[in-house]
Amino acid sequence: xxxxxxxxxxxxxxxxxxxxxxxxxxxxxxxxxxxxxxxxxxxxxxxxxxxxxxxxxxxxxxxxxxxxxxxxxxxxxxxxxxxxxxxxxxxxxxxxxxxxxxxxxxxxxxxxxxxxxxxxxxxxxxxxxxxxxxxxxxxxxxxxxxxxxxxxxxxxxxxxxxxxxxxxxxxxxxxxxxxxxxxxxxxxxxxxxxxxxxxxxxxxxxxxxxxxxxxxxxxxxxxxxxxxxxxxxxxxxxxxxxxxxxxxxxxxxxxxxxxxxxxxxxxxxxxxxxxxxxxxxxxxxxxxxxxxxxxxxxxxxxxxxxxxxxxxxxxxxxxxxxxxxxxxxxxxxxxxxxxxxxxxxxxxxxxxxxxxxxxxxxxxxxxxxxxxxxxxxxxxxxxxxxxxxxxxxxxxxxxxxxxxxxxxxxxxxxxxxxxxxxxxxxxxxxxxxxxxxxxxxxxxxxxxxxxxxxxxxx
Length: 458
What we know:
- The chain is of the alpha/beta class.
- It is 33% helix and 22% strand.
- The protein has three domains: 3-129, 3-Layer(aba) Sandwich (Rossmann fold), CATH 3.40.50.12160; 150-389, Alpha-Beta Horseshoe (pyruvate-formate lyase- activating enzyme), CATH 3.80.30.20; 395-457, CATH 2.40.50.
């Protein structure tokens, strides 16, 4: 039995796709081992969102070859799509597979090992590098056992937004939505395996269903996409055994009055929404080619808070985007304070070759980026702490995920529906995947988790 080690870089979509690839190879008899062990094959699912991500992808590929020079090292994913010349020239890479062929990894590997390619042609004659720009069909993958307490479900691929700092539309191609029945089939299978929470993910989830029935260019339509996404959520809610449905990162414009009012009626939908902001300054948003203003973003958040009880609103913010002045940063800071997010994921702008932003003038010096990042990190720590304090003394339910140590005692760690971490003592009767209710007694010493006294397992 050949041994395979895996390493994943990047987003939740990559995580889902790696789980499927692992499943496909295990079905062919390959044994999964830890990445630091000697293996016969190493599969590195790469990321290319920044130049740093490219570098990390190359580092992991080279580390794999050093672990076993005789092993077959396979580069998969976004880095393969965006830097073909470097992939071809890299002696550490034996085989490269593009994003649209991940679901065929077992067959590609089999042909490769049988010598079904020309000598030295690590890209199998280019068939793994199809142009994704105009592919109308979704490349279906089915996950039957995620090996986790919650399951990521990929419902969509590709992006049509072309933010000025982002290379992903070139790595993932145009939007492609997965057939609803295929999604429901996968979730039913996972429910039968004991999965109780699913997280719907994609490259641009808010574009789900936009291309259906459309010929030619597809423009973002929040009403059409909102209806398609709601219909999917409503069907998932009907699946027995599924207790929670969570949405990954969303385009803020999808939060129309109609969409928010309808999803507020879904009892299984987690009131946790990651609405990507990037900047609270309209001038910066325009340079980023984001398609909304700060005022429009505010309206969408207010709408969520009007229809739902304390929704957890999280976001992404880039500091030091080209041309960002002190005044523009001050506008962003004031906006973040006004919205009062649960959590802010802060990123220092990183130049990505091949994007419009990489050629912009007035690149912000690294020390300035670091200073602004520190300011926002302190802000989000304070806001997150305040949000968690709001649950003291209340009943909450957490999905148990893993055992951990706290003050010399063994505890279970998990998350509430609003994705706040909870910790409760292990009484010997708890297992991973349980839903347990309890009263929040206090916060952990670092303030990052709720300490819960359990009442009854669900």
